[in-house]
Amino acid sequence: MDERRMVRISKYLAKHLRHNPQRIGITLDAGGWVPVDVLLRATAEHGFPITAEELREVVAANDKRRYAVEDGRIRASQGHSVPVELGLPALEPPEVLYHGTIGRFVAAIKKEGLRPMNRHHVHLSPDRETAMRVGARRGVPVVLVVAAGTMHGDGHPFRRSDNGVWLADLVPPAYLRFPT
């Protein structure tokens, strides 16, 4: 499959598995899962047919491992704006995590910290390079350093999704270091 088709399918899946499943008539279970055959039937019925092979290729080739497939079901690994419980256990994070953003958001983040906005969690990267790529999606990236170990020690829970993204309910400004 060509790169354009792969990107279109991945974005289509993100839209419907993370944010708007009802748009194509699917219902996610409490954990965010939907049977693959139900998803494929719905995509075809709503004018964007995806083959089982294309779906396998998008899931396998996605560098961020955005989707998980298990027991004939698929779900987005994280980033939902619809109610789901991913069932991820609380874990002790590394001492430092990173968050990629862009300059125009830095003033608000300094004041309010990192908030999940329309998602369930704040997404944190395990390394600076990943955070840089995340921030670069919207413009010139700014990488913030999160004192995750200190934050965890102060009672803030962390979880890690299947694709290695760290999740926090919020990150107060006191735990953030900003570039100078």
UniProtKB/TrEMBL annotation:
Its EC number is 2.7.1.-. GO terms for molecular function: transferase activity. It is an enzyme of class 2 (transferase). SUPFAM superfamilies: ADP-ribosylation. InterPro entries: Ptrans_KptA/Tpt1 (IPR002745), RNA_2'-PTrans_C (IPR042081), RNA_2'-PTrans_KptA (IPR022928), RNA_2'-PTrans_N (IPR042080). Coiled coil: none annotated. HAMAP family: KptA. Belongs to the KptA/TPT1 family. This is Probable RNA 2'-phosphotransferase. It comes from Nonomuraea purpurea.
